[in-house]
Amino acid sequence: MNDILQGLSQAAQLVITGDADLVEITALSLQVSLGATVIASVIGLPLGAWLAVNRFRARRFVIALLNAFMGLPPVVVGLIVYVLFSRSGPFGVLGLLFTPTAMVIAQVIIITPIIASVAHQAIRELWADYHDLLISLNATRGQRIRTLLWDGRRALMTASLAGFGRAIGEVGAIMIVGGNIDHATRVLTTAIALETGKGEFGMALALGFVLIAVAVLVNLGVHFLSRTERGSRW
Amino acid sequence: MKLTSLALITGLALAPIAAQAEILRLSVTTSFANSGLAEVLLPEIQKDTGIAVELLIVGTGQALALGAAGDVDAVLVHSRAAEEKWLAEGNGTHRREIMYNDFVIVGPAADPAATAQTSLATEAFAKIADTQSAFVSRGDDSGTHKMELALWASAGVEPAGDWYRAVGQGMGAALNTAAGMDAYILADRASWLNFGNKAGLAITFEGDPSLFNQYAYLPVNPAKHPHVKAEAAQKLEDWLTSPRAKDLIEGYKIADQQLFVFNATDK
Question: Is residue A34 part of a domain?
Answer without folding.
Answer: yes
